[in-house]
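Example record

One chain of 150 residues, shown exactly as stored in the release files.
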Amino acid sequence: MAKIILATTTCQKFLYKIDTIKKSWLYNSSNIKHLFFTGGNEEKKVDNLITLKCNDDYHYLTQKTRKMFEYCLQNEEFDYIVKTNDDSFVDMEKFIATDYTSYDYGGYICSKKIKFLEGSDINFNYDDLAIHCNKEFLDGKIFNYGTGGF
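Predicted structure tokens for this chain:
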């Protein structure tokens, strides 16, 4: 049987959601390990809550997610990772019943044309670097992004 990590990203502000998940849809199984990841000043693990050394702000979710995968690769044994967020509901029984081993991603690839609004301030955050984007860079450009449950 495959070893699965169910990795849920959250933040210090929403730690209370862990209790909600544990009371509602947390799935206990010998082959599924549910870990929660948040950002902070130092890396530490308390039970199944891992604090990663990274910014905990929503705008740095990409950084936290990357560090979450790095943590799992370095510290956990698994065959698959199901990455989700603290505002998701996962029916693990249905998930396990699917042919999940045939897919790398569960969601949609979307395209969005950017309409830059005058006076707006758009920044992309990468690690601890904020990159400011102006009208000439964004207006009318099409960006592809992934969205989905896992």
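Notes: The longest strand covers residues 32-40.
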